[in-house]
Amino acid sequence: MIIAIPYTEFNPAKITLHPQIDDKRGRPIHPMSYRDTYAQFTDVSIVTPPLTFSSYDPVTGRIVMECHGSQHRTFNGKMVAFQKHILTHIQPEAATMSSEELDNMLQKLYNSRVLTLYTFPSTLVKLENGTTCSISELKAGSSIRCAVRLYGVMRLDYKGVPQLRIQHSVPSIWLTV
């Protein structure tokens, strides 16, 4: 069971990025936690508002969702604030880089009213009648909600270019009406 924060209650300023450690595979990662008035979580799980499903690529695992309209204003603002918050905490460690260089290094989950997440092809989508379907069976334009678990920021070197990736998983997706 995952305890997730509704996006309306999510406050990016309550995220702590911890000092860099090596994960199980020896890759450098900054673990993430969330501290609220009454609880502390070792990772950050949030529930999105209903989003418009655009596409899913089973080869890369990339799921793309649109966040258009006034009903997404709060979510969009919080995702932008979350990404800026991460960069603010990484910047002192990368003192030789400008904030623009750091911003370009971050592989953003949210950009220009589009949320891009990565999940496995075996991910099931819960349907309104209680059954499930494969994520690859979703039709563009469907309305979905996701539980997104954010657990760290990893430093990568891709073809000689340093990058920062927000490590996440998508433990639950469900179709909304």
Structural class comes to mainly beta
Give, in order, the helices and strands: EEEEEEEEHHEEEEEEE
Kindly state the number of beta strands.
Answer: 15
**Overall form:** globular
* CATH topology-level name: OB fold (Dihydrolipoamide Acetyltransferase, E2P)
Summarize the biggest pleated sheet: 15 strands, mixed
Q: Helix coverage percent of residues?
A: 10-25%
Distance between the termini: 24 Å
CATH-level-2 architecture? Beta Barrel
What Rg is obtained from the alpha carbons, in whole angstroms? 16 Å
The level-1 CATH class? Mainly Beta
In words, what does this structure look like?
The structure is a single chain. With 177 residues, the chain is mainly beta. It has one domain (5-176): OB fold (Dihydrolipoamide Acetyltransferase, E2P). 14% of the residues lie in helices and 45% in strands. The chain has a 15-stranded mixed β-sheet that branches. A hairpin with a 2-residue loop joins strand 10 and strand 11. The mean pLDDT is 90.
Brief sketch in words of this structure:
By secondary structure, the chain is mainly beta.
Reconstruct the topology from this structure.
Elements: E1 5-6, E2 15-17, E3 21-22, E4 28-35, E5 40-41, E6 44-47, E7 51-57, E8 62-66, H1 73-90, H2 99-105, E9 106-107, E10 110-111, E11 114-118, E12 124-126, E13 132-134, E14 143-158, E15 161-176
Parallel strand pairs: 1-6, 9-15, 12-15
Antiparallel strand pairs: 2-4, 3-4, 4-5, 4-14, 6-14, 7-8, 7-14, 8-11, 10-11, 12-13, 14-15
